[in-house]
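Morning F.,

Quick status update on the modeling queue. The single chain you submitted on Monday has been processed. Sequence for confirmation:
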Amino acid sequence: MSRRSARLWKLRSPSAGAEGYLRALALAKECVDLGARARTISLVTGVGHAELQRLFLGGRKRVPRGRPPASPEWYHGANLLYCAEASMVVSIYHRIRALGFGEGEALVTAYKHYLSVCGESHRISFDRGFDLVSHTEGIWVARTASFTLTPCRACACEFLAALGERSVGDSQCPFCRLVKRYLGDPRVQACFRVRALPDLRSLD
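Structure tokens below.
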């Protein structure tokens, strides 16, 4: 770590010190590997753009271009599969935060778990997940929350809904809607394949 980097880090987080800076760099590397924009990584980790460019992004071939995601408008017009996966990312994040993990670490861990479930067919980018969490928690790019996680009375899954919405019925739960459409919709079947149950005889 250069002296200038250490000095900048102390100004951002005086109590963190060198150990905190190294943890931030490790988290930044994970964000890079997950395809995040430099702006997103900087907000999540506190590491400056110049440092990110020097350490991680100099030889990177594919950097996300264009405007960053804006989820409050996007979510309400997104199709069912996107809504379900968006709810998955934020729900996993909240569960990890409840275990006492920090915001950045919880986001990275939640996104990795989401990828392990949806695999290569996943629809939510890391930047989109970051923006969804921001507008649910009122952090990072959002001063106030726009979404809330609502438990479905029918299936008990948590799904995203607009904060302050007067009536949130079970019919709005994307997971219940997916179950209803599953048998008749090949696209839904392809995204959420039935997994084989383990052979319990091997436990005898």
